[in-house]
Amino acid sequence: MARLHAQSRATYGRPRLLKALAAQGMKKSAERVRRRLIRHRLRPVYRRAWQTITHSAHRLPLAPNLLARRFDGWGPNQAWVADITYLATDEDWLYLAAILDLGSRRIVGWSMSERIDAKLMGTALRSAYWQRRPPRGLSVHGDRGVPYVSGAHRELAQGYGMPMSMSRRANAWDNAPMESFF
């Protein structure tokens, strides 16, 4: 039983182990398998639930879609795209905000946090700005999530002379280079 559990990379619990044992011709009762799992401290590893991280149903002001899916033909520091993804850890979730330069196709700024908020995206934007020192007029494109449309993020982008651009609602294709990065 321990061998089957290990072969499944610890994903088999009692129901699957019962089927695997039966396939090998070993008939065991569910109760017996349960007791052995407990005795040997074998527990299945469950996949974490998928988590929604962008909430675009808000009343905050939006920016126009300045990129309009034109992802090619940009020089370095002319247009940046941004997104946030989540990473499962042994303890909880971590959120990674990253900014990609469409001209160089490199990550120019990033930030990681246990919370998804405007500070996460703001830290990534500050990181990108201080590493690259782009000229005024560089466009920063993101989705419609609260971290992008918050007043703090908007003020930061305006202070750097960066017009904001946002995807249409529920349209990942409008931010395809960044969506495909993760």
UniProtKB/TrEMBL annotation:
Keyword Ribosomal protein among record annotations: no
One Gene Ontology term of the molecular function aspect: nucleic acid binding
Transmembrane segments: none
Domain called Integrase catalytic: residue spans: 72-182
Any one GO BP annotation for this protein: DNA integration
Keywords for this protein: Plasmid
Keyword Aminoacyl-tRNA synthetase: no
PANTHER family named among the record's database cross-references: TRANSPOSASE INSF FOR INSERTION SEQUENCE IS3B-RELATED (PTHR46889), TRANSPOSASE INSO FOR INSERTION SEQUENCE ELEMENT IS911B-RELATED (PTHR46889:SF4)
Record-given protein name: Integrase catalytic domain-containing protein
Species per Swiss-Prot/TrEMBL record: Pandoraea oxalativorans
Lineage of source species: Bacteria, Pseudomonadati, Pseudomonadota, Betaproteobacteria, Burkholderiales
